[in-house]
Amino acid sequence: xxDDIPYDKSFGLPAxxxxxxxxxxRRILCNNPGPFTFKGTVxxxxxxxxxxxIDPGPVDEPHIAALLDAVRGETVTHIVITHxxxxxxxxxxxxxxxxxxxxxxEGPHRAARPLxxxxxxxxxxxxxxxxxxxxxxxxxxxxxxxxxTLEAVATPGHTANHMAYALKEANVLFSGDHVMAxxxxxxxxxxxxxxxxxxxxxxLARRPEPIYFPGHGGAVRDAPRFVQQYIHHRRxxxxxxxxxxxxxxxxxxxxxxxxxxxxxxxxxxxxxxSVFAHxxxxxxxxxxxxxxxxxxxxxxxxxxx
Length: 305
Ligand SMILES: [Zn+2]
Description:
- The strands form 3 sheets. The protein has a 7-stranded mixed β-sheet with strand order 1-2-3-4-5-6-7, covered by helices on one side. The chain has a 5-stranded mixed β-sheet with strand order 8-9-10-11-12, with no helix packed on it. Strands 13-15-14 form a 3-stranded antiparallel β-sheet.
- By secondary structure, the protein is of the alpha/beta class.
- Helix 5 (252-259) packs across helix 6 (268-284).
- Strand 10 (163-167) and strand 11 (172-176) form a beta hairpin.
- The chain has helices at 61-70, 92-99, 194-205, 223-245, 252-259, 268-284, and strands at 19-22, 25-29, 42-46, 50-54, 75-80, 103-105, 135-136, 142-145, 148-154, 163-167, 172-176, 211-214, 250-251, 288-290, 299-302.
- The chain has 6 helices and 15 strands.
- It binds zinc ion.
- Zinc ion binds next to loops.
């Protein structure tokens, strides 16, 4: 299947180097590159003098030192988390100890739905189960500091507790892993849910911010249009799955081979989870049928077929 999203994979920021991306917003790249993290996690510092840190990242000593170095002589008043994956939230505890700043997030890590009988939580999903925010945020909550205001924008899907944050003074959005310029994120049940993810994309498509700063890679430009392309891309993938199932009952490995041509072998498992997320959504909507609860090992067919 052709990729219809105009990805921007240019991102030249060296690790552990502070860069001012716009007035009142600095970023630092952690040196944790990988197939899911791209060049690494990007942490943001919002404000000047009295600042918020968004996503301090993993427990990576050079990165933590670089973050603390960047705010030397300033006061960190808020530590803000987009979601509890291990490449985003674990360093919050260290930054809190060093600065005394409280943590803010939608909530602790949780699955998007109850586990089915016999279904184990996915250990490899990278959930940070240690993190518990000092202050729990709901959609639309505002947190503010010296010259900055962040609006919490609930964007579940990649994880159940994913929050984006709109910087009101600059009309930009910190989009975490929900929308990124270099790739689409993994949406993997039970931590993630495709129905939530699509609803969160529709929600962002209606927002005004033209520029997003994601948790990995460079800024998303012309963001509302890019979000539409994301939506289009996922609908296209759903169509590919349905097209394949119209030829007969199938399982997830077969669907992955049919749909993802030339896939990086390191991403096969993630692609399977992504297809699973679509099938779970399609089953809930009554479009696709399977035996019992949808599972990664299950066989799927068109409902009524
Ligand atoms: Zn993530």
